[in-house]
User: Which sequence fits this backbone?
């Protein structure tokens, strides 16, 4: 940051007074120290970052660099995880929300105060849980066809059985969602996750986020465990608790009130 004033990377918004104290050894993106800035009954958790990486033009280039993006996302998530572990409501902001200076962070809070406070009221005492269901392609143990006609019949039969197998797996995933949704307060179905990102084999049939009150988390997790055992072939992955990314609804911040944001 030598030679240029730092920009301010904003991770999350909490009610005024939260978090009471940040872990002393916790660092943010680019190993930056964390600060809290208060305005109008809200607190922003932020850190100073270099303009050489986070000003509008270099940031746009960096967002095409998967290695840089992964490292930044890890730093961002590290802060959110630490905040979520403490009491209080945490509203995570989108990756690379950047303001020009401390005054810009305070304008971000002031310009979106009502939206932030509404979201805090809706989400306080709740956490997000993620559930994914994956299924592998059906296995085949067919003998080699003896004739061309046998080959055509075998191919038609294979197509039919594959379609039926996928339909059963998709129905099972839908049933999982419906049963979990009955316990959760809200749910969101995200697009299927690319296998290159998930690291899982097979097709992603369910990519759900569930907003669960703290007092029902044990019930939700026990139900997810039972459903995983009932699935048979498909696999269920449960993750959480997370900050309520899917339900915060504060990613599109008030236009014209945060001109410093580069992201």
Assistant:
């Amino acid at each position: 940051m030598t030679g240029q004033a730092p920009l301010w990377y904003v991770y999350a918004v909490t009610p005024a007074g939260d978090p009471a104290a940040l872990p002393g050894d916790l660092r943010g993106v680019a190993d930056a120290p964390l600060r809290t800035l208060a305005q109008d009954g809200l607190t922003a958790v932020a850190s100073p970052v270099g303009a050489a990486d986070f000003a509008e033009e270099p940031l746009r280039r960096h967002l095409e660099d998967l290695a840089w993006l992964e490292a930044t996302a890890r730093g961002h998530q590290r802060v959110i995880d630490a905040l979520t572990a403490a009491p209080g409501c945490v509203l995570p902001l989108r990756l690379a929300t950047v303001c020009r200076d401390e005054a810009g962070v305070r304008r971000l809070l002031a310009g979106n105060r009502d939206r932030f406070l509404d979201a805090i009221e809706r989400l306080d005492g709740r956490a997000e849980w993620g559930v994914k269901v994956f299924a592998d392609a059906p296995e085949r143990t067919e003998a080699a066809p003896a004739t061309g006609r046998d080959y055509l019949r075998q191919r038609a039969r294979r197509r039919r059985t594959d379609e039926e197998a996928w339909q059963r797996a998709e129905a099972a995933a839908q049933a999982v969602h419906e049963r979990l949704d009955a316990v959760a307060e809200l749910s969101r179905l995200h697009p299927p996750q690319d296998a290159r990102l998930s690291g899982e084999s097979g097709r992603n049939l369910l990519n759900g986020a569930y907003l669960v009150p703290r007092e029902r988390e044990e019930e939700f997790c026990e139900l997810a465990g039972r459903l995983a055992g009932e699935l048979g072939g498909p696999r269920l992955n449960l993750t959480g608790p997370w900050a309520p990314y899917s339900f915060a609804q504060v990613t599109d911040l008030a236009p014209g009130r945060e001109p410093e944001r580069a992201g």
